[in-house]
What does this fold into?
Amino acid sequence: MTTDTGEPALTIDELAARAGITVRTVRFYGTKGLLPPPVIGPRRVGHYGRQHLARLALIEELQHQGMTLAAIERYMEQLPPDLSDGDLAVHRAVVASWAPDSVETVTAEELQRRAGRPLGEDDLERLAAMNVVRPEGDSYRVDSGLLRLAVQLLDVPLSQEAILAARKVLIEHSRAAAHELSQLFRGEVSERAEEDVKSLSAHMEPIVVQALLTTFQRSLKEEVHQWLAASDDGRPA
It folds into this structure.
């Protein structure tokens, strides 16, 4: 079921199934304020949407990072209440980036659960082309940090070639930024002990990722604004 705007209207059972958790857990998160209340529809049935799914995915990632429930509550309390599901997905990507590379071997059933939706053969082929999922016998090798993002890309109206080209651009520029930043910081830590350098790196990594993410979002919005303005003027963008 969907709303007039195309937003999925999920019952609590459907939400729990998509998130791979129990209905009891969904209700528990609601009592803790980790999930906004559902929209009450006909017959007093509560309906949930993309934001609830995105919040559950973020909570799952925070748990994966080893955060306690109290720490997760504090983290979620700091988030603006009007964040869209896309904004929440960005937060989840940032949290996932704190962890080391996480490539795991999972069953087909576990892959579907983590994806949060059924995956057909075409979907699996596209995920494999993105180098996020790779078949391995009866199982799959999965890049856990990129899986949810790649699944979202399945619904983006872009060709596979455009997505792969965008991936190449992002990888090349992120590596260049990482290299320049490491050169910049190297002069600051050259005299420190190895353990001090590791500690500084652990503290700086999430901060730098957040800074890069914020800067990129603002730059992208500016580019889109200029693109639309040029289109309105009838000029080539």
Remarks:
- The radius of gyration is 20 Å.
- The CA atoms of residues 38 and 44 lie 11 Å apart.
- The chain has ten helices and five strands.
